[in-house]
Amino acid sequence: MFKLPVLTLLGGLALASALPLPAQAQFAIPASAITLNYSNNNGCSLAPLQIYSIGTDQLVVSLNNTGSNWISFSVQVVLNGTSFTRTIQSAATGALGPGSLVVPIRGLTPALPASIANASATVTVQTCSTAPTPGGPPRNWR
User: Which H or E run contains 84?
Assistant: First the structure.
């Protein structure tokens, strides 16, 4: 298992931390190479942590829910690299609480490459809805 450095902001201070990756991860994109956008954001507050592949048919998007609400959303990921671009869409997540969370995207076809030179990504969080607890009362679940 190897680790990638990630910059995390806590109380206005930049702290270095490391996120462990599964041994089978083929490539990883650190937070510094991820642009985060929103489409239909209803009060969600997220920060990118990393994106990595497991095998050639699974992508994992790791985010930090910096708010205090439970959230539900989907993501569109545009992977970019030297001579490579690919857009991948996730299904909607279930209710996810504050803190670090992952969005696995499985069964990708065509297969992802084993590596991406000069990799970066744009993640668009889509139709993000919030609730104070996973059981509601919902503020804007859709």
Answer: strand 84-89
Which of 79, 13, 8 lies closest to 49 in space, CA to CA? 8
Q: What is the pLDDT of residue 86?
A: 96
Q: Is the pTM above the cut of 0.85?
A: no
Cα-based distances in Å from 22 to 76, 97, 107: 22, 22, 18
> Which residue in 46, 62, 43, 67 sits closest to 142, CA to CA?
43
- pLDDT tens per residue across span 7-62: 222 222 223 344 667 667 789 999 999 999 999 888 899 999 999 999 889 999 99
Q: Label residue 128 exposed, middle or buried (CB < 10 Å: 0-12, 13-18, 19+).
A: buried
- Token look-up 């205090």 returns 68
